[in-house]
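Is adenosine-5'-triphosphate placement plausible here? Inputs below.
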Amino acid sequence: MSQIDPLPVVDRAAEIRQALAAVVEPDLQRDLVSARLVRDVRVVGDAVKLTVVLTSPASPHREALERGVREAIAALAWPAEIEITWAADVSANSGFGQEGQAIPGVKNTLAVASGKGGVGKSTVAVNLAVALHALGARVGLLDGDIYGPNVPGMLGVDGRPVLANDKIQPLSAFGVPVMSMGFLTDPGQAVIWRGPMIAQALRQLLHDVAWGELDYLIVDLPPGTGDAPLSLAQLLPLSGAVIVSTPQEVALQDVRRGIAMFEKLRVPVLGVIENMSYFISPDSGARFEIFDHGGARRAAEELGVPFLGEIPLDPEVRIACDQGRPVTARGPDDPVGRPYFEAARLTASEITRLNAAKPDPLPVL
Ligand SMILES: Nc1ncnc2c1ncn2[C@@H]1O[C@H](COP(=O)(O)OP(=O)(O)OP(=O)(O)O)[C@@H](O)[C@H]1O
Ligand SMILES: [Mg+2]
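Reply from A.M.:
I modeled the complex. Tokens:
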């Protein structure tokens, strides 16, 4: 009696994995399968169900990845309905080559800085934090401006933080834990700080606060290249700095200085934002380039750092901050807040790229 050859068993999940090995995650520059970003592949009848893990809830690559996944599966020989569940896992800065101790539970700390005062750092810091939270990331915000804390007013948050288990409990605004010297000193009180006191105050605000589990902790710095950025870079490893500038030539010299300072501190520059980039008249729609235009982009290109976008001068941005409800609290589809969301996505992407390029710390034996 002749034996009938068994029918070949088609392992469809394996076929799918093989197909998805051709889809590359742009920030990691690795394919989804080897980077373990595809999980729980299941074939249920004619449907393919799988989980795709983004490198951040704020990743700008979600649409491109979805297209890639759908096309790769559609190219297989059998028809399938595709059901993608999205997840996200933000990488932590390994702290390679930097000083200080990371805050336990905080994966990435980033500074928002500028060479010059009044260019919109605090506005950017606050809106980046609210935007990243709205996109699904766990974000905290530290007002690192010890002399002139503006963050509480911009988020409409006030009060005295309480101590619990020897840690200062941050206040919360728009889902973001917030800490500021403004919560600890009386309003209007002039505080005279010398360099070592600034370092000490920053140390407490970073290390004695119960930040919890965070993907990103954003630190709004005072203007300039003084004690605060130096202390910050010595206190803990920074994933990078976002530099805010206005477009005119004199401001750009400060951008160059800022970038040089962070490079000296071995803090990567995540990118440059051009604030007050242009103004659109609400009456005529005419565009005015009040402080010139495009200089920050050119400076970024010249210095080889990413450009994170242009934010127009818009009275709504200021009014929203004055009222303690930043424009990004209106969600990602509001046109006024959109440039901040765009900058938030690009910042998250840059952090992923830099973390992937750093070696992992050696295991503790
Ligand atoms: N794109 C914008 N359109 C309109 N107003 C803006 C914009 N960005 C910032 N502002 C306003 O400009 C003023 C200065 O902004 P902000 O306080 O953020 O600057 P800063 O760089 O943090 O200043 P400092 O150096 O004093 O810390 C604020 O009143 C803010 O509301
Ligand atoms: Mg400020």
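Short version: Residues 121-122, 145, 150, 220 surround magnesium ion (ligand 2) (CB under 6 Å).
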